[in-house]
Every structure is written in structure tokens, then in C-alpha cells.
Design brief:
Length: 264
């Protein structure tokens, strides 16, 4: 690929809209702190949800749903694992916001993504607490021997690990001045164009598997894959096309698939 000047693309040059304010290379400590604060708040809120707080019982009752039995004053080992996975994603997002992203967070973006994660995680944990949908309906129940929990943890580690590795690889590439004005096309990005989105989709589906079984996990993964294909990927494609020009066209020709090699 031939080199290219580090072309700046402002949001005024983009017709697509996404949560990420692409093209605005700056920093906003206040808005970044808002986003990180919301992700940390999510950890606390999910600990209360998983503990079966009175508000959770009331909410499930409004829909005529019965709640699985509470393990007592402390979280069961199963619920501790679920909470640990959620806290890992929050830590990853905080690291990304403070150490990786070059774009300045907007208030709208910080609020939208923060609240979005809280909503998704709350709904997912409510499925775990509802007797009709909980993964604990298996004979193994609410124990670490539950195969849906074990499979969910394995896929979660694979997904969050892949997403994290993508960011580390791309970050190392961008910090090298010789790569200025070039798109990163190596490592996992040589397999598909958006492997970080693939990793995100996988760990989101894995959380669904661990909380409420394979059907839930599959539906959640399909939803996020659809969302990326309809919203985030077109927006990023427009941005990269205008920033990298012919190099991006060549990359798309060499790396045909967006999320899943040979499929999507």
C-alpha cells in the first residue's frame, strides 16, 4: 500500500452518524470522566441487580415473572463470576477511553454509550433472575458446574481477549510515526476488517449464554452483529474511505469480510 498524508476528516464531511465523534482529534477530560463514571456505576448497579434487590423483585413482579431464589446475604459463586465478567468489560472500556481513543468524547456520546451498557447489562441479568429464562434451570443449578456458565466464561474470555488484542495491536501501530496516514491492516485486522466488533459481539453473546442459555446468547450475538453492520460499520467505512482513500479501497478488496471470516 502506498503512503498517504494524515488527512483530517471532520464530522462536517461525514453523512453517517455514530456514537463516536470521528474526525475530532482532541481530548475532553470532563466527558471522558463522565463515560468512565457511568461504566463504574454500572458495576455497582449490576451487583445490586444480581443480589436481587427489592426493586428487582418489584420490577419482575410487574411482568408476572417469578424470581429465582436468592443465595442469601452475599452473591453466590455463579453470580460473582457474572459480576466479574461485567466489571472486566467496564475496566476494558475505561482503559480504551483513557489510553486508546484519539477522539474527544462528547456529552451525548458518553451518556449514550454509558446508559446503553447499563440497559443491556440490566436486561441480561434480569433474564438470569427470572425462573423462566435463567440458566440455573439446568440440573446443575446455580453452581460453577453449570455448563452454560462454563461455556459462557470460555467464550467471554475469547471475545474480550480478541477485542483487547485488537486495540493493543492498533495502538502500537499508530504510535509509530512511520505509520502516520496509514490504516492498520495486520494482525487480527488481516482476517476481517472489524475484528474488535467481532470480539465485542462474541463476549456479549457469551454473557447471554451464561445468564440465560444458548438461545438467548445466540439472539444477543445476532442483534449486535446486525447493529454493527447497519450502524457502526457503515459510519466507520465512510470515515476511513475519506481519510485513507485508495489504501482503504485496497484493504477492502484484500479483506472481504467484516466480522466473520468466510461468512459476514
Amino acid at each position: 500500500m502506498e503512503n498517504n498524508m494524515d488527512k483530517t476528516v471532520s464530522k462536517n464531511n461525514l453523512t453517517s452518524r455514530d456514537f463516536v465523534p470521528r474526525g475530532r482529534k482532541a481530548s475532553s477530560h470532563r466527558n471522558t470522566a463522565l463515560f468512565v463514571g457511568l461504566r463504574m456505576l454500572d458495576c455497582f448497579l449490576q451487583s445490586r441487580v444480581l443480589a436481587g434487590a427489592p426493586a428487582v423483585t418489584t420490577l419482575l413482579g410487574l411482568f408476572g415473572a417469578q424470581q429465582i431464589s436468592s443465595p442469601g446475604s452475599s452473591l453466590s459463586s455463579y453470580r460473582q463470576v457474572l459480576l466479574a465478567m461485567l466489571c472486566t468489560t467496564a475496566a476494558k472500556h475505561a482503559w480504551f477511553a483513557t489510553c486508546v481513543t484519539e477522539e474527544a468524547w462528547t456529552v451525548h456520546g458518553a451518556l449514550a454509550i454509558g446508559v446503553y451498557n447499563i440497559t443491556c447489562n440490566t436486561l441480561n441479568n434480569l433474564l438470569f433472575l427470572c425462573t423462566a429464562t435463567s440458566a440455573t434451570r439446568l440440573p446443575a443449578g446455580e453452581t460453577l458446574a453449570n455448563p452454560w456458565l462454563q461455556a459462557g466464561v470460555a467464550l467471554f474470555v475469547l471475545g474480550i481477549g480478541a477485542e483487547w488484542q485488537c486495540e493493543l495491536q492498533r495502538r502500537a501501530f499508530k504510535t509509530d510515526a512511520r505509520n502516520r496516514g496509514k490504516p492498520f491492516t495486520q494482525g487480527l485486522f488481516a482476517l476481517v476488517r472489524h475484528p474488535n466488533y467481532s470480539g465485542y459481539t462474541l463476549w456479549r453473546g457469551a454473557l447471554g449464554l451464561a445468564t440465560s442459555g444458548p438461545l438467548s446468547g445466540l439472539l444477543i450475538a445476532v442483534f449486535f452483529a446486525w447493529d454493527f453492520c447497519k450502524r457502526a460499520i457503515p459510519a466507520l467505512d465512510e470515515y476511513c474511505s475519506k481519510r485513507y482513500g485508495a489504501m482503504w479501497v485496497e484493504y477492502k478488496q484484500n479483506t472481504r469480510y467484516r466480522l466473520i471470516p468466510g461468512i459476514l
